[in-house]
């Protein structure tokens, strides 16, 4: 058995560089709790960036994993398997689209959406293939592949990885006029996060998504909503675009689709859009594998059975009200923002760096993460209870107020 210190040193020596906002090693987890090798318990308020909405090792999801592991785990896409058709049907019906395409990671699903929009642009809209443009937004985060970082504005994500993939027009977030100016006959799609998670829980103005939908309809452009972080009940609705009654052409999903157990991502759309892929034109060895499908079906069941959307809405409000009460007692907090259980605490400049507070919270037994150096994010598993939120608020108050 290695100590946390030994494990961190081993990783630094043999693992290529990775970003760790906090020095903690996790070796066990259950529900909203994680534990290090020394047996210290922490409340997880990051949920693996919203991938653990159902809570760590949810019994129903783990059972599905075990049951499927006893039958067949991987077939490749060369053969049909007996899980993917069931999962495809379940997910398509769950999101209300004709069909879904399975991938593994969020970035792969975003790449799939980009390819869909471009191919649709060529086949349906008649845009010359090297002319296609997709509108994206400043401060976006959609993943780390070479195409996706080509339209990132974050130097850490982008610098020195060129040459970059062309065909993306970056406009300010939450600015419909800028979008209108950018649209032209070669525009095939708009790719948007309904709330910018990695940028620090940036919630756009009411009507922004609806406005994007209108622009898309008026200009024969596809609307692709990246729900990788916001989806599966995180913001108090199954998907964040539902807050505005929007019907996107393409829904991009990942993270919590795998129930915190397994990488599972997917893109959903109607036949007239996703039908642009013909056999052999796109796919992945692991996409739609039986283990992933079994896990994802159980992950969806848990969201529905435990009414996690309603829970996130109710407890999110409770948590935000508690944070606002703390804000009233200190001049360190500038703003409490978010939706459901996707919450950002924006610090005043005089408060110093966010890392001071996230480290102090870790020492008290609460794991969360800073974004930039002045925003702290709280995104606990959605199975958190009111009492646990009270415990979290107490720790946060001790750190910010004393
Ligand atoms: N889209 C969004 C909105 C995300 O937040 C993330 C990951 N933080 C991704 C895509 C990429 O997902 P993955 O890390 O699984 O590739």
Automatic annotation (TrEMBL):
PANTHER family: AMINOTRANSFERASE CLASS III, ORNITHINE AMINOTRANSFERASE, MITOCHONDRIAL. PROSITE patterns: AA_TRANSFER_CLASS_3. GO terms for molecular function: identical protein binding; ornithine aminotransferase activity; pyridoxal phosphate binding. It is an enzyme of class 2 (transferase). Its EC number is 2.6.1.13. This is ornithine aminotransferase. The keyword Transferase applies. Coiled coil: none annotated. One of its GO terms (biological process) is L-proline biosynthetic process. Belongs to the class-III pyridoxal-phosphate-dependent aminotransferase family. CDD domains: OAT_like (cd00610). Keywords: Aminotransferase, Pyridoxal phosphate, Transferase.
């Amino acid at each position: 058995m290695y100590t946390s210190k030994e494990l961190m040193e081993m990783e630094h020596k043999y693992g290529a560089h990775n970003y760790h906002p906090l020095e903690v090693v996790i070796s066990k987890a259950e529900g909203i709790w994680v534990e290090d090798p020394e047996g210290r318990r922490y409340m997880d308020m990051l949920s693996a960036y919203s991938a653990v909405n159902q809570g760590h090792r949810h019994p129903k999801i783990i059972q599905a994993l075990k049951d499927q592991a006893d039958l067949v785990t991987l077939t490749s896409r060369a053969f049909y398997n007996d899980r993917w058709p069931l999962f495809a049907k379940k997910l398509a019906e769950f999101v209300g689209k004709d069909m879904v395409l399975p991938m593994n990671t969020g970035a792969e699903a975003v790449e799939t959406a980009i390819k869909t929009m471009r191919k649709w642009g060529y086949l349906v809209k008649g845009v010359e293939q090297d002319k296609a443009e997709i509108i994206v937004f400043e401060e976006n985060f959609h993943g780390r592949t070479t195409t996706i970082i080509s339209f990132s504005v974050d130097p850490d994500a982008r610098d020195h990885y060129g040459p970059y993939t062309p065909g993306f027009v970056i406009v300010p977030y939450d600015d419909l006029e800028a979008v209108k100016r950018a649209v032209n006959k070669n525009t095939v799609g708009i790719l948007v996060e309904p709330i910018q998670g990695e940028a620090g829980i940036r919630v756009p103005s009411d009507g922004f998504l609806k406005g994007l939908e209108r622009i898309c309809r008026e200009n024969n452009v596809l609307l692709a909503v990246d729900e990788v972080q916001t989806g599966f009940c995180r913001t108090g609705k199954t998907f964040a675009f539902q807050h505005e009654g929007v019907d996107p052409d393409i829904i991009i999903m990942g993270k919590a689709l795998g129930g915190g157990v397994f990488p599972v991502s997917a893109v959903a759309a109607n036949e007239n859009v996703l039908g642009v892929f013909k056999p052999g034109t796109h796919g992945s060895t692991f996409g739609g594998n039986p283990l992933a499908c079994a896990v994802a079906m159980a992950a969806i069941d848990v969201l529905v059975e435990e009414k996690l959307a309603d829970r996130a809405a109710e407890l999110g409000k409770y948590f935000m009200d508690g944070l606002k009460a703390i804000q009233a007692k200190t001049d360190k907090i500038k703003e409490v923002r978010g939706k459901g259980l996707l919450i950002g605490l924006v610090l005043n400049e005089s408060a110093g760096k966010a890392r001071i507070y996230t480290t102090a919270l870790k020492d008290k037994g609460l794991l969360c993460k800073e974004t930039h150096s002045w925003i702290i994010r709280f995104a606990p598993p959605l199975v958190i209870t009111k009492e646990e939120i009270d415990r979290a608020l107490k720790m946060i108050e001790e750190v910010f107020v004393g």
